[in-house]
Specification:
Length: about 775
């Protein structure tokens, strides 16, 4: 076995501090950014960091932010502007050739702009003229369903509530959001099985847990604030397992930059006891083996199952039919390893299962979440201290946006409540999600696209097709703080409306406003920026919604749009009437430094499900799904590609997408992936033993080929081979660069989440002559 070069220092520490300081200087945001860092996640007069959805600590901390958070703050507080002067220097065609990194660093959007086709440039426009153009195009549609209204999870509760109200008053439920691409299986399956599609734990449960199983998650890069709690739990005696095809080096140990003793003495805390390197897409198979062993060896909580659950016999029968040979084939580790993990679960009085998008972003993502929930139900781990389900979300308010009604498939109770409160009919038909919305765009069924935050075309599969579809629209509107690729494919009319960032003060005619967000564990907390806005012409998202609504519905509308946009207390009073759990919103949010926790019935063993009990679910896909896909594709790939390849130059693999340590979603801060020790993004990660088996080596150039669901070949590359401790038959590359490998029909059946984390591909080594010829 070849030795893999690894990152040896602990996560955090001086490397994190130095990287954070460099990024503040890189963005020319050292003063504004540093002031914002000090008020990030503070209980009084602070803002909630947009870098992740991890909950705030209850105890006051002078600094409560991580490296990723500082990078996001630097991005928002940069002093450079992408204004009309910037666009006077650069045509849209030129900007289409810029990388995501270059666009991210172009500056803060600081004045409303429209696209002038004659010049191929964005030019300044007044707010009123922008609102008039939007209203005119919306009124000219044959149906409200010809408009698509996308939302990013960075939008706070108050503007999110107003946005969905605007869209529904207009007459459609076409409200896709980034949840469709990240934790949709979590929302769907937890909602079906437990009654609420959210975490059943609170932060204090991590202090009581005796076993934490982390599935498909890399907190060192994606939510570093979690590391402190993991290190604390481990120190308390909690056993922690990382179940992941990749051995992430940032999970070995943690040196807390906020602890002077650790920084000076060079001390660090261990976090993970073991890494279980299953094959990509093998989570449901692993969980099946664990559940099978627990039931067959009578290690389950029979009293809880009989009292609180439904569907156990169906699951038990299905588990009995699963052979150990198939289970081992499905997950890629031995039966004894599976039994060892199940034994830990059997011995633990308090177990938390926590997961990220490594669980959800698969064709079988719904099954993965279902089996995690099944495991917790078998052991009675819902509704106890130190145990439960803990999905970890990315955007700081992606969960809150859904709570506020940003949902293409709204519940009838929400529609009835909105209709009652506002005395306005609400559309009853389900709307379009990200997948169906993208298809409708490509098919020409959408005429107006509105995006409140986000980078829709790049985040979604089939990026190129979506970008070209946008150019045929009558109108595209982007409400945002920064320039991104989706904005560079204008339709007949195109508008960029700049908004105040999370870090900036929001002062209206009614005084300074604060907003609220909901974190991953159902806590509602305040957020209030402290630095001066980059431009006097910026407006809040709520004020922009007000402007559009007033122009669209007229000043005589029965809904007080102006009051809601200027005074967030008014908005919160309406939320209190319309959204369950927010009664006395204004009073409760001011009553405590850290806000309040939304009531979660499952925490109290109350089940808001069809059966009135917690529900076991039988998976829909065979546990050997991934292995079967690879076997089935081998012959097809061989037939199609044998004539182009030499012996041993190709093989079928499972490819997963990853994010680097220098990015947040589609925002590329830089090219350093410190823990994976690479400084470029055009790479393909592979285990060095697999390279040796193929006769390949680090630095070789390869292409990735995939046949999509319609039999069309898709290609990514050339990419440079680099080493990673990853499971056999598995490779990884960076998101979002890999998105054109993914088609819009490769998704989970119920949640419809794209399969970003599991694609069957072929690898083809590219010779130097081929590279010259293609160039």
């Amino acid at each position: 076995m070849r030795k893999i070069p690894v990152y040896t220092p602990p996560a955090g520490g001086w490397s994190s501090l130095i990287a954070s300081a460099r990024k503040l200087m890189d963005y020319k945001a050292f003063l504004r950014g540093s002031l914002s860092v000090l008020s990030s996640n503070q209980p009084i007069g602070g803002f909630d960091c947009p870098g992740c959805a991890w909950p705030d600590h209850k105890s006051h901390k002078t600094i409560d932010v991580c490296e990723t958070g500082i990078k996001v703050i630097a991005s928002e507080t940069m002093s450079t502007r992408a204004d009309a002067k910037f666009f006077a220097r650069h045509t849209v065609k030129e900007l289409q050739g810029w990388s995501g990194y270059e666009l991210e660093h172009s500056g803060r959007l600081s004045e409303p702009l429209y696209y002038d086709a004659a010049q191929d440039r964005y030019v300044a426009i007044s707010w009123q003229d922008a609102y008039a153009r939007i209203a005119e195009q919306l009124k000219n549609l044959d149906s409200p369903d010809e408009a698509l209204f996308y939302t990013s999870g960075r939008v706070a509760n108050e503007p999110a509530f107003m946005y969905q109200l605007l869209v529904r008053c207009f007459g459609t439920n076409n409200l896709p959001d980034c949840s469709n691409m990240c934790h949709e299986p979590t929302s769907v399956m937890l909602g079906k099985q437990l009654g609420v599609g959210k975490a059943t734990v609170v932060l204090e449960d991590f202090e009581q847990a005796k076993l934490i199983l982390m599935f498909g998650q890399n907190p060192a890069t994606n939510h570093p604030r979690m590391l402190e709690m993991l290190a604390h739990a481990h120190k308390q005696g909690c056993e922690i397992l990382s179940i992941n095809p990749m051995r992430e080096q940032g999970l070995k140990a943690f040196r807390n930059p906020q602890k002077l003793t650790q920084m000076v003495a060079g001390m660090s805390d261990d976090m993970v006891d073991n890494v279980i390197q299953i094959q990509i897409g093998g989570d449901a198979a692993l969980l099946t083996g664990m559940a099978k062993w627990l039931i067959e060896n009578d290690k389950i909580n029979t009293d809880f199952i009989e009292t609180h659950t439904s569907g156990f016999e169906a699951l038990k029968h299905w588990l009995r039919e699963q052979s150990w040979a198939d289970i081992v084939l499905g997950c890629g580790i031995s039966q004894q390893e599976i039994v060892n993990i199940a034994g830990l679960v059997a011995d633990s009085p308090a177990t938390i299962c926590t997961w990220g998008m490594g669980i959800t972003q698969h064709v079988q993502g719904d099954d993965n979440v279902a089996m995690i929930t099944n495991l917790l139900l078998l052991m009675g781990m819902i509704g106890i201290e130190g145990g439960g389900a803990s999905p970890i979300r990315g955007h700081s308010n992606v969960q809150g946006d859904r709570t506020m009604g940003i949902h293409e498939r709204p519940s009838q109770s929400l529609l009835d409540s909105m209709q009652k409160v506002f005395n306005h009919p609400m559309p009853q038909e389900n709307g379009l999600d990200v997948i169906s919305g993208a298809k409708a765009l490509i098919q020409g069924k959408i005429k107006v696209f509105v995006s409140m935050g986000g980078n829709y075309a790049v985040a979604a599969p089939d990026s190129n097709a979506i970008q070209q579809a946008l150019t045929k629209n009558q109108l595209n509107v982007f409400i945002a703080t920064k320039l991104n690729e989706t904005m560079l494919y204008p339709g007949v009319d195109n508008l960029i409306l700049p908004c105040v960032s999370r870090t900036e003060r929001l002062i209206t005619t009614k005084g300074e406003q604060f907003a609220t967000i909901e974190d991953s564990m159902c806590n509602i907390v305040t957020t209030q920026g402290r630095v001066k806005p980059i431009s006097k012409t910026l407006k809040s998202e709520a004020q922009i919604v007000t402007g559009i609504a007033t122009q669209l519905f007229g000043t005589e509308s029965s809904i007080p749009w102006q009051a809601m946009g200027e005074d967030f207390d008014v908005t919160r009073d309406y939320i209190a009437q319309a959204i369950a759990g927010f009664e006395d919103f204004n009073q409760r949010i001011r009553a405590a430094d850290r806000g309040f926790h939304l009531y979660h019935p499952a925490r109290h063993r109350e089940w808001d499900t069809e059966s009135g009990k917690a529900q076991f679910e039988v998976p829909k896909y065979p546990i050997t799904y991934v292995a079967t896909q690879m076997a089935d594709r081998t012959s097809t790939f061989d037939d199609d590609n044998a004539k182009n390849s030499q012996p041993d130059e190709q093989a079928v693999w499972q490819l997963t997408s990853v994010r680097s340590h220098d990015q947040f979603n589609t925002m590329i801060f830089g090219f350093q992936d410190r823990y994976r020790q690479t400084d470029r993004r055009d790479v393909l990660f592979m285990h060095p033993d697999e390279m040796s088996r193929l006769g390949w080596q680090k630095g070789d150039t390869v292409r990735v080929l995939r046949q999509d669901s319609k039999g069309q070949q898709r290609t990514l590359g050339p990419l440079i081979l680099t080493e990673m401790d990853i499971a056999a038959n598995a490779v990884a590359t960076y998101y979002p660069e890999c998105n054109d490998l993914i088609d819009l029909d490769t998704h989970a059946p119920d949640s419809r989440i794209p399969s970003y984390k599991s694609l069957t591909v072929i690898l083809e080594r590219v010779s130097a002559d081929d590279l010259v010829a293609s160039a």
